[in-house]
Design a protein that fits this description.
It is a single chain. The chain is α+β, with helices and mostly antiparallel strands and 178 residues long. The chain folds into two domains: 11-80, Luciferase, domain 3 (Roll), CATH 2.30.38; 85-177, ANL, C-terminal domain (GMP Synthetase, Chain A, domain 3), CATH 3.30.300. It is built from four helices and 13 strands. The strands form five sheets. The chain has a three-stranded antiparallel sheet with strand order 3-7-8, covered by helices on one side. The two termini are 36 Å apart.
Length: 178
């Protein structure tokens, strides 16, 4: 992997403010507006993602991705901005929790979402599909997660389900879990 930004450089955070050093940010791509070719299709959605850049005639495309830049300048994908869970003042990437869930013996499939919570802002909820014959309980799964995750990342709720909803391309359709 090649560093994408030297550590001494600044990068814009999700609201366009330059920050140094960068720990987490939303990557953006700059180009002339004409190069994007999507403006006329959905102007309202385009205006939210395509904003004037710092150079004359340049526009910046906000990707909606959430990434982490390490001290050596390597960029790591963390998740999508619209998937990030804000719990206890922390940003939680569902992919990190799902990775732990997939590594629990007896778990076949998993999906994690944020659900409204008066105290936490959002609570982490995991939907888990068990392998045939598995006898895992929600408490067993929470215990396994507790050994591998920070406390703010722990699923408050674990629901064992038969299957997870999927799109026509086979991806888990988290909107149907909300």
């Amino acid at each position: 992997m090649v560093p994408v930004v030297p550590p001494s450089k600044t990068v814009a955070n999700p609201v366009g403010v330059e920050v140094v050093p960068v720990v987490e940010a939303a990557p953006v791509a700059g180009a002339p507006k004409e190069a994007c070719g999507i403006e006329l299709l959905k102007p309202e959605q385009t205006a939210r993602k395509l904003k004037p850049g710092p150079l004359p005639g340049e526009y910046v495309l906000y990707t909606g991705d959430y990434c982490r830049l390490d001290e050596e300048g390597y960029l790591y994908f963390v998740g999508r901005m619209d998937d990030i869970i804000k719990s206890r003042g922390e940003k939680v990437a569902p992919k990190e929790i799902e990775h732990v869930l997939y590594n629990i013996k007896g778990v076949r499939d998993a999906a994690v979402i944020g659900v409204p919570d008066q105290t936490l802002g959002q609570a982490v909820k995991a939907f888990v599909v068990l392998e045939q014959g598995s006898r895992l309980t929600p408490k067993d799964i929470q215990r396994e997660c507790q050994a591998k995750l920070e406390s703010f990342m722990l699923p408050k709720y674990v629901e064992i389900v038969q299957d997870l909803p999927t799109t026509s391309t086979g991806k888990i359709k988290k909107t149907d879990l909300r």
